[in-house]
Structures are given as C-alpha cells and as structure tokens.
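Exercise: predict the fold of this chain.
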Amino acid sequence: MKIEVSSNVVSMLLGEAQAAYPSECCGILLGTGARIVEARAARNVHDAPEQHFEIDPQALVDAHRAARQGGLQVLGYYHSHPNGLARPSSTDRAQAARDGSVWAIITADRITLWRSGDAGFEALPYEVAPR
C-alpha cells in the first residue's frame, strides 16, 4: 500500500529534524485514509532526547480527541535519528505498538515510512503530493 505525503509535511519534517539537532524531534502524523496531510510537532519529553524520544502525552491526547470530534485522523507518528539511519532502531522495534500505525523516521536529508504490525516494522513506499 503506497502512502501519499503532502509536500508541506515533507518540508516540515526535514526542517524540524534539522532544528532539533542534536536532539530527536517527534510528533504526530495526521490525515485521512492513506494520505498524510499534516504533521503536528510535539515536545520530546524523554530524559535523554539526544538518543531517544517520547511524544508529550498531552499532544497525543489532544490529537486523538480532535480526531474523535471530526478532525484529521491520527495515522501515525514521527521522530528523527539525528546521527543514525532512516530505519527503525532496536529501541524503536522494542517499544512500538504493533497496531498498524505509520511511522516516519527522519535523518538529515531523508524520510522513510514504516508500518508497525504483528511482524514488526514493514517499509512503506510513499509519494510526495503537492500540498
């Protein structure tokens, strides 16, 4: 299944990863169906943000509440690997819920998408759509 990602989201994710360096940025991917149209930045509340991330719980609550009230759906999450590879780390694999969420992993110049499922992470192809 190919995911469509707004070009605005791609620009925002790359910019946020660069601005957060050397810490990891993180946030929430919003949209409908297989189309990601918005990325909502969240505070990384982990005690060691240079090596790990934890999305601010209030940002998660707010996004899910807005979705229940007719807003964009929470399709997944994102975080950066400031000095790593654009693929799930062993920590990502151990901590991700296997609920079918989309995960974007960002490096300095690359974004990859993954789906977390029963078998772990599966790479997702995507195309960049205007806005």
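Check your answer against the key: The domain at 3-129 is CATH 3.40.140.10 (Cytidine Deaminase; domain 2).
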